[in-house]
Recover the amino acids of this structure.
């Protein structure tokens, strides 16, 4: 891993660092990335075809059970050194914004505050027909469960393909991308829109962009720097080298 002194100097001098994360940051915790083959029972399904309102309408039980399997998997894993390094970065940077595409809660469990969750949260539940959040429901054996007030079908509070992202969060994310001077794109394939525009917007606004990913992505050629490797190894090294006296 060749971390140039330019990268360390950029971290130290930045007045506003944005970290933008994707499924890759949770990979070392044991959460499969979105485009990785699902394991076991779910191997035969294409995640891009399950994460749509059409799939839910066609087969709500199948889609609910896929999310239940993922919720259980997430509940059984822990944040990894990559998540923890971003908490330390938040504590050391002059200004810091964390934007995540991930629906897991590993950033929050690591201790990050104020995560801008672009694609919702898998542990929240809402009504399919009007998006109203629902906290609890009686166990009637229905799969998916139904809203105790209206009887409507419940679904996870995540953003599926073809759905709009939460407007206020998206606006805050673009504002941060425009206002930062260092933008870190971590563990994302940089393919899903409109989130993939964030690093491009940062570059357009004059920020330097550092990509951290073991594989090249459509962003790699435009990024100021690309570090090819796992974020759970690279991020702790970046923090230790940029803020040595505080990491001791
Ligand atoms: C590691 C690692 C390690 C591994 N360390 N790294 C313009 C052009 C074309 C299409 C569109 C467009 N605008 C909109 C669209 C359509 C669509 C879209 O983008 N399609 C693309 C596939 C082309 N976008 C939408 O539909 C969005 N809505 C929208 O635009 O609304 C406006 C509208 C509405 C109606 C009509 C028209 C417009 C919504 C997108 C919602 C995305 N939702 C999902 C599912 C969430 C719920 C769930 O999890 O089930 O969000 S899809 C999925 O992709 C998930 C992720 O958050 C998102 C991004 O994926 P991510 O995080 O990058 O993961 P992976 O798996 O792709 O990559 C992992 C990376 O990690 C890899 O690069 C690895 O190498 C790396 N890695 N180990 C670091 N240890």
């Amino acid at each position: 891993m060749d971390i140039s002194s330019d990268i360390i100097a950029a971290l130290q001098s930045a007045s506003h660092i944005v970290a933008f994360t994707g499924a890759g940051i949770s990979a070392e915790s044991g959460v499969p990335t979105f485009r990785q083959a699902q394991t076991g029972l779910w191997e035969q399904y294409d995640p891009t075809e399950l994460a749509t309102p059409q799939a839910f309408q066609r087969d709500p039980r199948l889609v609910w059970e896929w999310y239940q399997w993922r919720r259980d998997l997430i509940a059984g894993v822990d944040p990894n050194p990559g998540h923890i390094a971003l908490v330390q970065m938040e504590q050391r940077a002059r200004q810091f914004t964390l934007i995540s595409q991930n629906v897991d809660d590993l950033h929050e469990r690591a201790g990050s505050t104020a995560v801008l969750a672009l694609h919702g949260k898998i542990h929240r539940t809402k009504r399919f027909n009007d998006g109203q959040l629902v906290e609890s429901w009686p166990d009637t054996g229905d799969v998916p469960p139904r809203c105790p007030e209206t009887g409507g079908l419940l679904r996870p509070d995540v953003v599926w393909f073809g759905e709009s992202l939460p407007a206020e969060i998206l606006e805050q994310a673009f504002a941060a991308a425009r206002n930062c001077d260092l933008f870190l794109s971590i563990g994302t394939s940089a393919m899903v829109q409109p989130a993939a525009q964030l690093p491009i917007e940062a570059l357009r606004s004059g920020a330097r962009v550092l990509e951290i990913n073991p594989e090249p992505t459509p962003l790699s050629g435009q990024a100021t720097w690309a570090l090819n490797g796992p974020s759970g190894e690279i991020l702790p090294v970046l923090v230790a080298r940029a803020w040595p006296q505080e990491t001791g």
